[in-house]
Amino acid sequence: MKQLTVKDLSMDEKLRLICCEGRWYTPDLGGKLPKVAVSDGPVGLRKELQNEDGSWKETLPSVAYPSVQCLANTWSRECAHEMGEALADDCIENDVDILLAPGVNIKRNPLNGRNFEYFSEDPYLAGTLAYEYIDGLQGGGVGACLKHYYANNLEYNRFEQSSEVDERTLREIYLKPFELACKAKPVSAMCAYNRVNGVYASENKKGFKILREEFGFDGAIYSDWDAVRDRTAACKAGLDIEFPFNQKNYEKLVADYKAGRVSDEEVDACAARVLTMVYRCAEMRGTKKAKRTRQERHAVARKAAEEGIVLLKNEGVLPLAKGQKVCVGGEAARPKRSGIVAGGGSSFVEWAAPLFDLPALLESRLGTPVRYEASFWARGIVSDWMKPHKMLLNAAACDVAIVCANTGRDVEREGSDRDGMRLHAIQEEMILETAKRNKNTVVVLFAGSAIDMSAWKDSVAAIVWAGFPGDGGGEALADVLTGIVCPSGKLSESFPYCLEDSSSYASYNDPFVARYEEGLDVGYRYYDTYDVDVAFPFGHGLSYASFEYGSLSVKAGKEGVELRCKVKNTSSVGGKEVVQVYVHPVGSFVYRPYKELKAYDKIAVPAGKSADAAFTLGKDAFAYWSTAVDGWRVDDGLYEILIGASSRDIRLKAMVECKDGAFRIV
């Protein structure tokens, strides 16, 4: 098929091209162009089939991967890349050209209903993992869609509320993950619903200019579904295509063009970028076929879940030993519907695989019967008044009691935010009552964002963060609990003791405006700068192995700093360790958070062996956005480099000085 340019299209065709077809397709203009199919699915393809009149609708079952939050907890570029590759296979089998993913919005507020869809509170971690996800997806022949651009950090009144953010905070926190992810050259990006400093994201010309001219984005920008209020204003700002098709918006755009309110050049610019995206997708797809079988894709999901499960607390009760008497409570252990262990909204996946059965999986590994009682519903409604009583009797009679607590799609979902950070009172009560009867109580949490555990954290022997682990999550969890897999996940967000401790809690918020008064102090940047105690810090995660850090070597020069250290596994258990590198500016003349993540690596270290971790910190690792010069700036001065196992578990330190743009060791 000959590749057309805007010169080959009439104005009527160009206006039609930038307004899409139906809900999920770009127009083919009567067969002139390839038709591009888009679909939801950051953690599993969510392809809808439906009649034109909406009288029939079906969502195709698919592999359910761990939530993006769980993926981020792997801190594994390899897992992110493989998940992208596997998702490409899902799309190819179902004739989908662009997957509407990934989302890289920052976790500013613990209550955001879509936190489970996003990577992190830290822009570097979010952006680098998103890069791998996009690279894997597009390498597999399917286009990515980077979203939601930008400053979309709550679901509350998302169609109207304005995120009021200063320029430096935007650059360093909320735009940075988009900048990093753009290095993977995504074929498309999606605007957010909200306003940014009073201007709708769909009409934010300044934001689109930054994306294209500064971040190097060369794809097409389209709207989130029904995010366009004024198609003409959006076109003039640089929004290339509107989804879904809106007859009223289309007719107004045509009328505005005829009235001279939008120019040929503005329409041509949008149409040209849509054409480029259409042909790029056709070229990427080519004759590619799925590389992995569905079972192999399930294995990818299981591996990501294994590495994304975080052992938050362990007083020696884990791993479980063969022959132990174990009881399990909570419907999340044997879910009757996938929404019990997954978030809701456009990322919700109809599982192709059977729902897992944790008690049965544990039985097969321990070699002894595992007692199970549902105990409670996710919403806190007791399903059978006798079952909580039975669970407590079992707990008293067993060596280990496991309570599976959860939120699920009824609590965490697109379109609304959580009411609070705590579990339902009945779940908290079940945890406490179980712990009274068994000192070896283990709590397994199926949730997508930080939970306030203050009511019961100190009463239990172990806490395991399963997240929303996908259809391989049951197997992965059983392997972690029994020691077949050594846990290696680390938190990609801080867990404060309570909502009131979060930096955004006191910021002004009404139906019209959300003021980002905390500025740069998001997540650990706030907690570590102001020495606020947290339940579990950013980057935290325990292991059955133990690791020592040492032999730090540093090289410094004009381009930055090179680091190398050794990580020794001092235990009899092989494991993986996430080595984290933070930079602390000493004596800065502008406000800077105490420390910021600038590099990380996940390395496998066999029992009793050592492995090297190496990092390169370029000048950008020491830079801040200067509003005085409207650009990035590295000031002369001292910078302390901190290497550790979490933001609050620093093992090695070094000091370097920047002078006249070059670095030296102090």
Q: Please, could you describe this protein's structure?
A:
This protein has 666 residues and is an alpha/beta fold. The protein is 26% helix and 23% strand. It has 16 helices and 29 strands. A six-stranded mixed beta sheet has the order 11-16-15-14-12-13, sandwiched between helices. Strands 1-4-5-7-10 form a five-stranded parallel beta sheet. A five-stranded antiparallel beta sheet has the order 23-22-27-28-29, with no helix packed on it. The termini are far apart.
Give structural attributes.
16 helices, alpha/beta, 666 residues, 29 strands, 23% strand, 6-stranded mixed beta sheet
Proportion of residues in helical segments: 25-40%
Name the overall outline: globular
Biggest pleated sheet: 6 strands, mixed
Total DSSP helices: 16
For the terminal residues, how far apart are their CA atoms? 62 Å
> Roughly how many Å is the radius of gyration?
25 Å
Brief rundown of the structure:
The protein contains 16 helices and 29 strands.
What's the layout of helices and strands?
Elements: H1 11-17, E1 38-39, E2 48-50, E3 57-59, H2 68-72, H3 77-93, E4 98-99, H4 123-139, E5 143-149, E6 162-164, H5 167-174, H6 176-181, E7 188-191, E8 195-196, E9 199-200, H7 205-214, E10 220-222, H8 231-237, H9 247-258, H10 264-285, H11 294-308, E11 310-314, E12 326-329, H12 358-366, E13 370-373, H13 387-397, E14 400-406, H14 425-437, E15 441-446, E16 462-465, H15 473-482, E17 495-496, E18 513-515, H16 524-529, E19 534-536, E20 547-556, E21 560-569, E22 575-586, E23 596-605, E24 610-618, E25 624-626, E26 631-633, E27 637-646, E28 649-659, E29 662-665
Parallel strand pairs: 1-4, 4-5, 5-7, 6-8, 6-18, 7-10, 12-13, 12-14, 14-15, 15-16
Antiparallel strand pairs: 2-3, 8-9, 11-16, 17-19, 20-21, 21-24, 22-23, 22-27, 25-26, 27-28, 28-29
Helix pairs in contact: 1-10, 3-4, 3-11, 11-15, 12-15, 13-14
